[in-house]
Amino acid sequence: MSIDQASAAAIRIRESTLDPAHAVFDRVQPAGEPLLWEIRKGQTLRIVDVEGNQAADVIFYNRHDTDEHYSATDTMLQQGGIYLTTGSVLYSNAGRPMLTIVADTCGRHDTLGGACAAESNTVRYALAKKFMHSCRDNYLHAIQHSDSGLSKADLVPNINFFMNVPVTAQGELTFADGVSAPGKYVEMRAEMDLYGLLSNCPQLNNPCNAYNPTPVRILIWD
């Protein structure tokens, strides 16, 4: 059995009862664009895949101490799996819960594939792709135009919401067609005050978004 098959059983679909009309924050983030925003402890965050199979690359930080951030390794070790779904807890590098996934209509979110960058565009695709718009560039743009105190050194492995990255029995990552669809969403309860750093992935070379970046929607409820 491959790692992908072993982890598939972790998919847990759950609908939310929250009404978008009651959200205190509601933003449609354009295709390929970055965003840095605040989330308060106890609030519920929903990220919506508006048109389907759009990767939303996100890193979370403790808003009062940005040295504490989302940790892919702590999260995978604590939950014993490589995919995120309903019930998954996102842990920080200090071993503390940052967010809990309370609803999920997609069922699988990637922790391993990372964010595209000039270097990965070159390695995965072609030298000519090096200077294409990338998630790492998006992150840098967002933090340089903020007063968050974040810097280039704070960029760490991210979550790829709605992205499908199966792992073979040999441990190889495969960037596959997405498993999401228009209107699918993931919803999380914040366990501390946070910054969310989003790159709405601009990648044009990956089948996960049918080579067509599209918007995502971000909602927050008190």
What does this structure look like?
The chain is of the alpha+beta class and 222 residues long. It is 14% helix and 28% strand. The chain is built from four helices and twelve strands, in the order αββββαββββααββββ. The chain has helices at residues 3-8, 72-79, 118-124, 135-144, and strands at 25-29, 34-39, 44-49, 56-62, 83-84, 89-91, 97-104, 109-110, 159-161, 184-190, 194-200, 216-221. The strands form three sheets. It has a six-stranded antiparallel beta sheet with strand order 1-12-3-10-7-6. A four-stranded antiparallel beta sheet has the order 2-11-4-9, with helices on one face. The longest helix is centred in the middle third of the chain and has 10 residues, at 135-144. The radius of gyration is 16 Å and the shape is globular.
Keywords:
six-stranded antiparallel sheet, disordered N terminus, alpha+beta, globular, four-stranded antiparallel sheet, 4 helices
Q: How many strand elements?
A: 12
Main β-sheet description:
6 strands, antiparallel
Rg of Cα set: 16 Å
Order of helices and strands: HEEEEHEEEEHHEEEE
How are the elements arranged and paired?
Elements: H1 3-8, E1 25-29, E2 34-39, E3 44-49, E4 56-62, H2 72-79, E5 83-84, E6 89-91, E7 97-104, E8 109-110, H3 118-124, H4 135-144, E9 159-161, E10 184-190, E11 194-200, E12 216-221
Antiparallel strand pairs: 1-12, 2-11, 3-10, 3-12, 4-9, 4-11, 5-8, 6-7, 7-10
Would you summarize the structure shown here?
By secondary structure, the chain is an alpha+beta fold. It is 14% helix and 28% strand.
